[in-house]
Amino acid sequence: MLRRLLFALIGVAAAAILVADRGPSARAADPEITGNWLFTYSPRGGTEQALAIVQVEVKDGKTVASAIYSPIKGMTVSKFESDGKTVKFNTSLGFSFEGTVGKDGKIAVGNFSSDQASMRAKLSRTDKTE
User: Fold this and answer.
1) CA-CA distance, 130 to 110, in Å (whole number)?
2) Cα-Cα-Cα-Cα dihedral sign, residues 40, 43, 45, 48
3) pLDDT attached to residue 14
4) Where are the alpha helices (DSSP H) in 2-126?
5) Three-point CA angle 78, 59, 82, nearest 5°
6) Which of 50, 23, 21, 25 minimizes the C-alpha distance to 38?
7) Fewer CB within 10 Å, N side or C side of the chain?
8) What is the DSSP letter of 54?
9) Starting at the edge strand that comes first in sequence, how are the strands of the sheet with 77-82 ordered?
10) Which helix (H) or strand (E) holds 81?
11) pLDDT by residue for the chain (130 residues), tens digit each?
């Protein structure tokens, strides 16, 4: 009797695993991440400085980003990742950005940090190119 109960429970668990949708779900409500974004940070409270204009686009089915303008010559963006809710990327300055995209898809607020320092930062949609 105990053996039958055990096999029945295993069968139910296996059926639940097979029926569960483990594939990526459609994210129709997620904001579109492609376009130009103004990247700013706050080195101290009450100030905000523009660091770059970041262009996000899809190339070969993969989302990539590049700094199309920055007052810091040679600044680049690498390892861009986004799942529609969060955005992460590294810069050639030794700092990385990690933020959360707002529900309207027009802003991503987070932090700009390295091993030694962390500052508030945000990405805002823009039409600017320089």
Assistant:
1) 23
2) negative
3) 54
4) 2-19
5) 50
6) 50
7) N
8) E
9) 62-69, 49-59, 35-42, 118-126, 107-113, 96-101, 86-91, 77-82
10) strand 77-82
11) 656 654 455 654 555 554 554 544 434 334 588 899 999 999 888 888 999 999 999 888 888 999 999 998 999 999 999 888 899 999 999 999 999 999 888 999 999 998 888 999 999 998 887 7
Q: Which helix (H) or strand (E) holds 47?
A: none
Burial group, residue 63, by CB count within 10 angstroms (0-12, 13-18, 19+):
middle
Predicted local confidence at residue 25, as pLDDT = 42
State both tokens at 121: 């930062």
Taking the C-alpha atoms of residue 35 and residue 55, their distance in angstroms, rounded to an integer, is 6
Instruction: Decide: helix, strand or coil at residue 119.
Output: strand
